[in-house]
Amino acid sequence: MAEAIDTFPRLLLHHAKARGGRPAIREKSLGIWQTTTWSEVLTEVRAIACGLAAEGFRRGMNLAIIGDNRPRLYWSTTAVQALGGVPVTLYQDAAAAEWVFVFQNTEIEFAIAENQEQVDKLLEICPQCPMLKHIYYDDGRGLRHYQQPELASFEKLQAAGRDYDRANPNFFQGEIDRGTATDVAAMFYTSGTTGNPKGVVHTHQSLLVAARMGAEWEKLGDQEEVLAYLPMAWIGQNIFSYAQAYVCGFCVSCPESAETVTVNMREIGPTYYFAPPRVFEALLTQITIRMEDAGWLKRTLYRYFMALAVRVGGRILDGESVAVADRVLYMLGNVFAYGPLRNALGMSRIKLAYTAGEAIGPDLFSFYRSIGVNLKQLYGSTETAVFVCVQPDHQVKADTVGPPVPGVELKLTAGGEVLIKSPGLFREYYKNPSATAEAKNAEGWFMTGDAGFIDKDGHLKIIDRAKDVGKLTDGTLFAPKYLENKLKFFPYIKEAVAFGDQRAAVCATVNIDMEAVGNWAEKRNLSYAGYVDLASRDEVYELIGDCIAKVNADIAAESEIAGSQIKRFLILHKQLEADDGELTRTGKVRRGHVGEKYAALIDALYGGKAMVHVEAQVRYEDGRTGSISADLKIRDAKTFPPAAAKKAA
């Protein structure tokens, strides 16, 4: 790719000329896949850009984009960039109140929304955001009788753009020509585990350089197929389904809805796939449930071939030497188990799959590689445009994120914090120079806040967030995320939060997975009235206790953390939710908030109590609030002396 093609709009012009008839983006609509070619995308983007210009949008202005993955929202991103503006994508499932800070911070006048749900929330915040004067919507269902002057359909915007283009035929190309690689290309607001979110400012250069580094590392080309299903507001989605699509010229497909992602995966058969650990966890839970429902023969074959896969599957994928008999058996397993399993997951054609965002449990990671999915760990952040470390083929480890990609420098502080220099590094936090100065030191190193170390092969191993790593009172290392990820490998545990820093022992709160535990309960004829009732059953406590015991046996075998086994636990009365402030919009635990909110429960865990009463208020997606009252049981977990760990496991 010529280096002169240094902005997203210029790349669009290039692809429209070089591969104009090739598919650029697909959308599943009304049960049919609709395909748009690169040349057609250029026509659509031109109309949107000219329409925005006709409405008063100018260089340097910010524009909000809100909705699920939809072609028009992707085209709007490029159209805004063509005008020298800045697209600001927001989480579509956030409550309206969560958008207010961003709109006020960026002084947004223009917004493009997917549908009625997003329009309603935008109209709700208009009194607090008086600068918002233009709202355009993609899907007009339910909006026929809306009369607000701010509203206009996408069709009306593009019609105005075509008129403006006819009157000013050189305008669109002229605006693209004015753009430079160092112009701001996008802004991503971090979900933030504390305080207001920060606007991470990226240029065309930082996004495209990072996208190219990843594409060259993995030898990606224009034949790849990608399914765009994660939030557009998350930078990982932007890199994999927008920036790299523009760098490589491959096709991106948008699913019909969140509920049809798995079905659409099977239809498209992506070759390049990304998912955070929680998605891989959910898929494994579905597999486990299906196997429990299967007949005796099917369950027996599955267990036999999975045991074989765990033993040799990863080695075969990495090109290592494996006994002929095992290789033949694995080939049979591919026919009877692994192939059908990959097909059910929509992963039959995957050449490369990534996971990132947070640490993935080693057992979960090894499971996918064992069935022939080339899953690799990737390390990066919003500030680094994702690509920092990537595991090379045939050097994949369950407990590392690989070495730095070419062009990235990495070093560790004396305290183990990871520092990074990269051409993909963000410019600044928007209107927040103090936060920028805290994140970048005088030498230009970005301070990630992650704790880790470099192994003998030059791979980075992330332990936890530096601020979360602590010690028990006896000096034992306490890495909560490491413990939590081991717990979440079990299909019955959806979320876990471990506590122990500056305490004598580790305790944990657990969320059960309602689907998996409900299925387990039904097979045992255990009746229950709902989540609270199911979570309080003694049988469920025994189930979760067994899972924790297995984790403790593993931990006991690791000398550095053998003393951080989980001593006591309780099952929470509700799922941790982003709407209740307990999780970020990307699914990460707000550890400090959870610790404060459930301080009484944590005190009960450490106080030796067998039960604690809780009354809590919850907030639903529609803004309503309700209350929950429950008596939570507290149980001791089985622990192991280090010398007995292997025998117990």
Short description:
The chain is α/β, with parallel strands linked by helices and 649 residues long.
Describe it for me?
48% of the residues are buried. This protein has an eight-stranded mixed sheet, with helices on both faces. A five-stranded mixed sheet has the order 23-24-25-27-26, with helices on both faces. It has 649 residues and is an alpha/beta fold. The radius of gyration is 25 Å and the shape is globular. The chain contains 22 helices and 27 strands. Helix 1 packs across helix 3, helix 8 packs across helix 9 and helix 11 runs parallel beside helix 17. Among the domains are: 189 residues, 3-Layer(aba) Sandwich (Rossmann fold), CATH 3.40.50; 57 residues, Luciferase, Domain 3 (Luciferase, domain 3, Roll); 179 residues, ANL, C-terminal domain (GMP Synthetase, Chain A, domain 3, 2-Layer Sandwich), CATH 3.30.300. The longest helix is centred in the middle third of the chain and has 22 residues.
The geometry reads as globular
CATH class of the domain at 8-27 and 34-202: Alpha Beta
Which percent bin holds the helix content?
25-40%
Count up the helices.
Answer: 22
Instruction: Give the N-terminus to C-terminus distance in angstroms.
Output: 53 Å
Secondary structure: number of strands: 27
Percent of residues in beta strands? 15-25%
> How would a crystallographer describe the biggest sheet?
8 strands, mixed
What is the CATH T-level topology of the domain at 8-27 and 34-202? Rossmann fold
Q: Give the second-level CATH assignment, the architecture of the domain at 8-27 and 34-202.
A: 3-Layer(aba) Sandwich
Protein structure class: alpha/beta
Side by side, the strands of the main sheet go 7-6-5-3-4-8-9-18
* Rounded average pLDDT: 91
Low-pLDDT residue intervals, each spanning 5 or more residues? 644-649
**CATH homologous superfamily of the domain at 8-27 and 34-202?**
ANL, N-terminal domain
The value of Rg in angstroms is 25 Å
